[in-house]
Amino acid sequence: MSKSLLRKQQVDFILLSCIMSLVAIGVIMVYSASSHIALYKYKNDLYFLKRQGAFAFLGFTSMFFISRIDYHWFRHHTGKIMIIVVAFLLLVLLPIFPSINGARRWIIIGPVSIQPSEMAKYVVVLYMAKSITNKGNQIKSFLYGVLPYLLVSGFFAGLVLAEKNLSIAAVIMIVTIIVLFAAGCKFIHICLVGGFVGALGVAATVFQPYRMQRFLTFLDPWADPKGAGYQLIQSLLALGSGSILGQGLGLSRQKCYYIPEPHNDFIFSVIGEELGLVGCTFIMILFIIFIARGISVALNAKDLYGTILAVGITAVIAVQAIINIAVVTGSMPVTGVPLPFISYGGSSLFINLSAMGLLLNVSKQVKNKRSF
Quick one: which of 171, 192, 347, 359 has the fewest CB in 10 Å? Predict the structure, then answer.
């Protein structure tokens, strides 16, 4: 058997190792961060661990299954997938599903909840990969090469924003800009789109009182330590008390009803308290390696479609990880973006791992052996 054929049958082992390591750390830390709350609320300290573990198993099953499907299959079915995701995004807005903390983001069916916005991030990548491949040099035109993607991505981001989810809507638009840049759009067009998206983000913040309050809290969380600034202050206390080596796994104090729902968006705070700077650095290194391998897969993909897919999927994870860590460390205003593979959330973990199957499939079909 030729070396080239062997190469086509193997996924990127370093990339796969990073994904599995991040999920393993996530499952362990979800248990550590949630055990007190689960024991009090559900009389079972393993409640969140069992659910996260089950979705991790389902996610890995989906990942390995999709990694065996030629990624070009998705190119032929992108339109159908887009219609399904739009239907879900509209369905979640119906009053038949409960509003949680003023937001409508979940389709709840029995014990299972589905968050359509998680699907929207990747369906935009699928659409852009297919369309950019067909567009050729027209990508350098604003009217034919940029505006259509701005409209389509804006449509999906708008539906997500209607769910009161500005953070994921912002992720969709940021990923769109990254993909357009990677596809070869003119820099001036990228700047125009970035400025426009930034202006919309500012408007969405200014005209929504609770978002404006979050921004003001970011500037000075101690101005309202028992109100709007409470969560960020507790996060900083957790990170500070962890010091270099941490308090030890399972020994966080802030997770005991100080940080609200510490197993979700602020799980990185608990990691910092229990595992210290060393643990946080290790996780950030894993994400950096993941991004580097994702870029390598994109550079070595055998066609433009595979390149755009790899760039988009990698960007989704990278943007979310950067935003989450920035929020937890007080580097940007508080927003609800989970830490990929680590924060608690069944549908998020399952969909992210399914997308990883697509990325791994691209890594199996490379044109040469260049790599980082």
Answer: 192
